Amino acid sequence: MGCNILFRSDVRAVLIGVAVAYVSAAAADPCGDLGYIRGCLDTARAVALCHGLAWADMVQAIREALTPGAVELLEAARVGLLEE
């Protein structure tokens, strides 16, 4: 059985990509469910913290990868959620 090695940079890239996909998908929905986004981001944040990654830096990278409308939804979901 081989050894699978995950580097923090790999985990970081995956989490950013997944978070961008979640927020973008929610932004495409006219309802823009903030509870859904908060749950997804809570999960991504928990995994990031378990791997010793700086969540605040990741939020900036997520924001930079989003469209303007999706950034607005991300900001709306931030209430006490994304602070490290």
Write structural notes for this entry.
- The chain has 84 residues and is mostly helical.
- It has one domain (8-76).
- It is built from 4 helices and no strands.
- The N and C termini lie far apart (37 Å).
Q: How is this fold's topology laid out?
A:
Elements: H1 8-28, H2 34-50, H3 55-65, H4 68-76
Helix pairs in contact: 1-2, 1-3, 1-4
Provide a brief overview of the structure.
The chain is mainly alpha-helical. 69% of the residues lie in helices and 0% in strands.
Largest sheet features: none
Number of helices: 4
Percent of residues in beta strands: under 5%
How many individual domains? 1
Please describe the structure with a list of short key phrases separated by commas or semicolons.
84 residues, mainly alpha
